[in-house]
Amino acid sequence: MRTTKSRSCSIVAMIMSALLAVILVAGCSPRVTGTIDVPVGDDLTTTAVEGTVVSPYGNTVALSIFKGEGKYPANFSLTMTVREVLDTRTIRGEIMPPIPFGELQPGNKVFLYLCVPLSEKADKLSNGTIVYKGDGYPQIVVGGKYDVTGVLQPGWQDYPFVYVTTASQFKQASAGN
User: Fold this and answer.
1) Both ends of the chain: CA-CA distance in Å?
2) pLDDT digits (tens, 9 = 90+) for 77-107
3) How far apart are CA 101 and CA 152, in angstroms?
4) In terms of pTM, does the model score above 0.85?
5) Could you tell me the superkingdom of the organism this chain comes from (predicted)?
6) Taking a C-beta distance cutoff of 8 angstroms, is the pair 177, 95 a contact?
7) Which phi-psi region, left, alpha or beta, contains residue 77 (left: φ > 0; alpha: ψ -120 to 50)?
């Protein structure tokens, strides 16, 4: 009789411990408390003239880059820390080592143009973090590290301007980066 009572108390104690652990874990993780509006970025394809787009540097870029097609394969790859999401199409980042250009140093900025825009709404978590999202993109947070590939703007000056043609070219950085 004592053995049976002891076992049932032990089982109840294990179940209560597991339930308490689940409640503590669920209560500690940040939750979505609301959404914020993300400014809509310029769709550079609307400025298209005869199959080209005028870039921020004044040079023309083939319209096929924005459509993710044609003879313009990704020619640029880097790991970056997101410093600011300016709008649904533009992200400012900080280049992380290894630096793809000899003249740049860690801490130099890069601007990304997202051919596939982010959502116009971002989630605000209970801890104040803003989580940007979009079809095919990972959760994007300021301060997060990401691996990015894209097409480098011809004739870039001061800082690289990179066209990210598909959402799959923007990925959460692996632990090794």
Assistant:
1) 59
2) 889 999 999 999 999 999 877 666 666 655 6
3) 12
4) no
5) Bacteria
6) no
7) beta
Cα–Cα distances in Å, from 110 out to 71, 81, 87?
Answer: 24, 10, 15
| Lookup: tokens for 95 | 């280049």
CA separation, residue 129 to residues 28, 75, 83, 120, 137 (Å): 14, 32, 13, 17, 17
Region 105-119: what's the mean pLDDT?
Answer: 85
Q: What are the beta bridge partners of residue 66? A: none
Q: What is the pLDDT of residue 75?
A: 81
Largest Cα separation within the chain, whole Å, is 89
DSSP 36-87: EE-PPPP-GGGG-BTTEEE-TTS-EEEHHHHTT-SS----EEEEEEEEEE-S
